[in-house]
Design goal:
MATE_euk; mainly alpha; MATE_fam; about 650 residues; single chain; about 80% helix
């Protein structure tokens, strides 16, 4: 073994003939093959023409022949009477040769740019470190230096020749126009090790700086997307509220009730089922199975397409439903008309939500910001025109909202047209049969996801109904409406961080990086808490200015400003809870999230809030105090479950789920 490392030439005059040299080369090749070191199957990572490939091969063979002639001449000199060499010929060790010799990019492809050269040099440095470790493996295999010296000392010259030959031989890939990798000496097990590095070895450790940068970079556009998607309902309320009509109050109540029914039936159910994509798409993208995203999209379209049928019936008869639960007939009529106008836009919202999930899983988030801006502009300008400058009036507000909903999915068409590679990367074409096979997994994850969403939304709607039973109900409803709007607006910021954490956790689990997933979950929670503290300071500092945006009554403004102080503890916990639920979606544990929400809101939050509001006379702040206690319980349970997570097991589950 020592002779191999030093690459010296020992031998007598009988071993220097050309025939013996070739025999030694063959023996050495067999030795290397037995040790798993002889494998010329390598590929290059730069496009080249067939003529360039032939040119490089000829140069490699020419250099090899030149070295072989020098070796043979040296062997003849030993045989011709000079005897053994008085001193060993110090040639570079195999490991040094593998690490130091570089294949120049410009020889393989003269048109290779700076980026290609940089990628090549990075790959060669990494490969050199892998190859250098192979010789330590040989030493540990039991080859003693004394026993191996007698067998292989005379073949040291041919060893370097064989390694040199393997260094320059390569095969082209199946695609003649694109060759990937570069010809290096790679044994099979080192190639597997390299692929493990690329897919994410389990023991690889993340860096906090890198993960924070990824989280913030991904969360920033997502935050603005959800904030912008919050405005359409506010714009509709504002437009209707400025109508000069004796029925303005009934119009406002009708829009509010229509929005409530749509949220609980159409949006809550559809978007809740779509949360299955948060798990499936992010993990498939991490597992380098981009085409799976297209299959999951088709499965989601099938599920939501079937779901739309009962959703359509429920919202078409909104008026009858509201009258049945005791709402005023005139208000119910306006709510029913508003819902019926918006119904054709529900499928567009479903399609856009599914596409948004697929793109977010691939870290493509900026286009949705621009699309949300376009949709809001359409809603504002078209709504203003139809509401105030045509005879549509109340109906004009609903028509503008419908058009803005339709704009969302259709705005993706020019984006995909301008960036066809984005769609081509993950769209496999229509495979309805295969998509049907994945409907079960979409429902398995989507139903608990819908429960997570609906349990939270329903608690707010029930609380709004209970607020109307308080003394001074008009004042209580006004204050509660201000708190709900502030809470919803702030929640969109936390939802952006939640989606970013969800995407990163799912991607890392799919790529078999459990430690990265763990760090992403923890950093997401830290970022949410820090952001919520900053936002809470801003809200408290402006607590008497914010209500003035919605109301102009000084007494209501003062009461709302005081009640906002009770909202802040809830807001801090809600930020943490949102991110932890995103982590649960990324790991595929949506059932756990639904169970936690059930206990947080319906077992603790609402009962305690009702007790504080009525029995203890706290009014509206009492409801929010009860919700705060409930969500604190949810945060504690979620945090404990995340800390107890077997991240290696989650990575295994992700591999099975995406296989």
């Amino acid at each position: 073994m020592e002779s191999i490392r030093n690459n010296t030439i020992d031998g007598d005059s009988s071993s220097g003939s050309p025939k013996d040299i070739h025999s030694l080369i063959r023996n050495q090749k067999c030795f290397l093959k037995d040790k798993g070191l002889c494998n010329p199957e390598l590929v290059v990572n730069t496009s080249t023409l067939q003529s360039e490939t032939t040119f490089v091969k000829k140069n490699a063979i020419r250099r090899f022949d030149s070295m072989l002639k020098k070796k043979m001449a040296l062997a003849r000199s030993c045989k011709d009477g000079n005897g053994p060499l008085s001193s060993t010929v110090a040639a570079p060790s195999i490991a040094d040769k593998l690490n130091q010799e570089k294949w120049p990019v410009k020889v393989c492809n003269p048109r290779a740019g700076t980026k290609a050269q940089k990628r090549l040099q990075t790959g060669l440095q990494c490969q050199g470190r892998i190859n250098a470790s192979l010789f330590d493996i040989l030493e540990e295999s039991g080859e003693d230096s004394e026993t191996s010296n007698s067998s292989y000392s005379s073949s040291n010259s041919s060893e370097h020749t064989e390694i040199f030959c393997q260094r320059f031989l390569y095969i082209s890939s199946a695609n003649s126009k694109q060759l990937e990798g570069f010809p290096l000496l790679l044994p099979p097990h080192s190639r597997d090790f390299k692929s493990d590095l690329e897919s994410g070895a389990r023991n690889s450790l993340p860096t906090i700086k890198t993960e924070v940068f990824k989280l913030v970079k991904l969360a920033n556009p997502v935050i603005w997307t959800y904030v912008l998607e919050f405005f359409p309902s506010i714009v509709s309320m504002t437009l209707v509220g400025h109508l000069k009509s004796p029925l303005t109050k009934q119009y406002l109540d009708g829009v509010a009730l229509s929005t409530m029914v749509l949220n609980l039936t159409a949006i809550g159910i559809g978007f809740g089922l779509a949360t299955a994509m948060d798990t499936l798409c992010s993990q498939a993208y991490g597992a380098k199975k981009a085409k799976k995203l297209g299959i999951y999209l088709q499965s989601g379209l099938i599920v939501l397409g079937v779901t739309y049928l009962p959703v359509f019936l429920l919202n078409w008869y909104t008026e009858a439903l509201l009258v049945a639960i005791g709402q005023p007939a005139q208000v119910a009529a306006f709510a029913g008309r508003f819902s019926q106008i918006l119904l054709p836009g529900i499928p567009a919202l479903y399609v856009y939500e599914l596409f948004k999930k697929v793109l977010q899983a691939q870290h493509v988030v900026l286009p949705m910001v621009y699309i949300a801006v376009i949709s809001n502009l359409v809603n504002v300008f078209l709504g203003g025109y139809l509401t105030f400058y045509t005879s549509c009036g109340f109906d004009g507000t609903a028509i503008a909202r419908l058009v803005s909903d339709l704009v969302l999915p259709f705005s993706l068409i020019p984006y995909f047209y301008q960036h066809p590679y984005v769609l081509a990367k993950w769209w496999p074409g229509w495979h309805v049969h295969e998509a049907m096979q994945h409907v079960s997994i979409v429902l398995e994850l989507g139903l608990p996801g819908a429960a997570m969403l609906l349990l939270e939304w329903m608690s707010f709607e029930i609380m709004a109904a209970l607020v109307g039973l308080l003394p001074h109900s008009i004042m209580a409803i006004t204050v509660h409406s201000v708190l709900v709007n502030v809470s919803t607006f702030a929640f969109n910021f936390f939802l952006g961080i939640s989606v970013a954490a969800n995407v990163l956790v799912g991607t890392y689990l799919g790529s078999n990086k459990p430690q990265h997933a763990r760090m992403a979950s923890m950093l997401g929670m830290v970022l949410a808490v820090l952001f919520s503290v900053v936002l809470a300071v801003v809200i408290v500092a402006t607590r008497y200015l914010i209500p003035a945006i919605f109301i102009n009554d000084t007494v209501s403004i003062a009461s709302s400003g005081h009640a906002i102080l009770y909202l802040m503890p809830y807001q801090l916990c809600d930020a943490l809870n949102a991110v932890m639920q995103g982590v649960l979606r990324g790991t595929g544990r949506l059932s756990l999230g639904a169970t936690i929400n059930l206990f947080s809101y319906f077992v603790l939050g609402l009962p305690l809030g009702t007790y504080f509001a009525f029995s203890m006379g706290m009014g509206v702040p009492g409801f929010w105090a009860g919700l705060t206690i409930g969500i604190v319980f949810g945060c504690v349970v979620s945090f404990v479950k995340i800390c107890e997570t077997d991240w290696n097991g989650m990575a295994d589950d992700a591999r099975v789920r995406t296989s």
